[in-house]
Design brief:
Order of helices and strands: HHHHHHHHHHHHHHHHH
Largest sheet: none
Number of helices: 17
Shape: globular
CATH superfamily of the largest domain: MFS general substrate transporter like domains
Number of strands: 0
Number of domains: 2
Structural class: mainly alpha
Radius of gyration: 21 Å
Strand content: under 5%
CATH class of the largest domain: Mainly Alpha
Distance between the termini: 26 Å
Length: 400
């Protein structure tokens, strides 16, 4: 095995292990953080301030990565993010004032979702794409990467079901941060951006891929906003309100949804290997969105659950293929910026979805589903129209 291939395998192992650890920590945080803040007697405004700090931190850190990530060093920034996550855990464990936790959260290391789209994801996408493997292997790596996050996040959520305890949450995040920093130190030097030639001025954030990345960011922002209308919390609320579902039924349904989504993440690379990245993104996403729009018209609870499960078989197949597509579309020296910009676009718009769904719900229980499904179908059609004639560099280089 050549040195470059060994470095690539090592990078994949480190990233997948780090992703598993972080998914576990974020799964615990997704369940416990809100309960801990409530036990501390924080007002709604204070909780909102903290969550806003987390979101703002992800935005700021992603913009820093887009502008200076390759210059400062990917390994260095990856290590620093895990150190910041350890600091978040320490602050939570010892129960410091809210303002200090808000300041630490501004690093972007904390997340309000089990599977985040923040700075960690940006760096990991770039490192996985730069292993020197054939595109087929890269896409498989992205499928496994997302499946690991889903499984680890579920395990973390189960752990978080224990009584709310700041020492539990803080201790888990501290341990994950410390272990992640140690793993980051094992990354090979080949994960860094290509060196600039002496005497050449550093280019702008994006040059050759600026137009394509801007179009993708706009489309991804639309898709993420639409997805925010039907987050799992709203789906659970709707199942209770519309069909009188019990929490046991909802829990079992969501567990089955998670299992099917994990399977679809692993299956997506095999589909992409046969039909291509863009076709997999569009033609698995389209039927899943038709199913989404049909859910509120199911006359019975079993019918609604059947539609949810059918959608789960397809709805996540675009995730690893989307990540691989962005990395394949742009030049190697612009991958960090492209990943940061496209991930930030998704992260920015998603929180508006649940708020709008809550405002629209009195006008009709079906409205959030219809808006989400219609917008997502529009995203799929626009994506196909804009990029169907674009040939990826790997498609030009590799034989059919």
């Amino acid at each position: 095995m050549t040195s470059g291939r060994q470095d690539g395998v090592k990078t994949v192992r480190v990233v997948l292990t780090a992703q598993a650890l972080r998914g576990l920590g974020y799964g615990v945080a997704a369940v416990q953080l809100g309960a801990i803040l409530r036990l501390d007697g924080l007002s709604s405004a204070e909780v909102g301030l903290l969550l806003a700090a987390v979101l703002a931190g992800s935005l700021v850190s992603s913009l820093v990565l887009a502008r200076w990530g390759d210059r400062l060093g990917r390994r260095r920034l990856y290590t620093a993010l895990y150190a910041a996550l350890a600091c978040c855990g320490l602050v939570i464990a010892i129960g410091t004032p809210l303002w200090l936790l808000a300041v630490v959260a501004m690093t972007g290391a904390l997340s309000v979702e089990v599977i985040e789209s923040g700075p960690f994801t940006t760096l990991e996408q770039v490192m996985l794409a730069g292993t020197g493997q054939p595109q087929r292997q890269v896409v498989r790596g992205f499928g496994l990467y997302n499946a690991v996050a889903a499984v680890a996040g579920t395990a973390g959520a189960l752990l978080g079901a224990l009584p709310a305890d700041r020492r539990l949450l803080g201790g888990v995040l501290l341990a994950v941060g410390a272990a992640g920093a140690l793993l980051a130190a094992r990354l090979p030097a080949t994960v860094e951006a290509p060196a600039m030639r002496p005497g050449l001025a550093r280019p702008r954030i994006l040059t050759r891929s600026r137009g394509a990345v801007a179009r993708l960011a706009g489309l991804f922002a639309l898709d993420s906003l639409a997805g925010g209308f039907v987050v799992q919390a709203y789906l659970g609320y709707w199942l209770v309100l519309r069909h009188g579902a019990t929490t046991q039924t909802i829990g079992l349904t969501f567990a089955a949804v998670g299992a099917l989504q994990t399977a679809s993440l692993l299956a997506a690379p095999m589909v992409a290997d046969r039909v291509g990245l863009l076709r997999t993104m569009v033609f698995t996403h389209l039927p899943s969105n038709v199913l989404l729009a049909a859910i509120p018209f199911a006359p019975t609870l079993p019918g609604a659950i059947a539609l949810l499960l059918a959608r789960a078989c397809l709805s996540q197949m675009d995730v690893p293929t989307r990540q691989a597509y962005v990395m394949a579309l742009v030049p190697a020296d612009e991958r960090t910026a492209a990943a940061a910009i496209t991930n930030t676009a998704r992260y920015l718009t998603r929180p508006a979805g649940p708020a709008l769904a809550g405002l629209l719900q009195p006008l009709g229980l079906a409205l959030p589903f219809l808006i989400a499904g219609t917008a997502k179908i529009g995203y799929d059609l626009a994506l196909w129209r804009m990029f169907r004639t674009v040939q990826l560099p790997t498609e030009r280089e590799e034989p059919p």
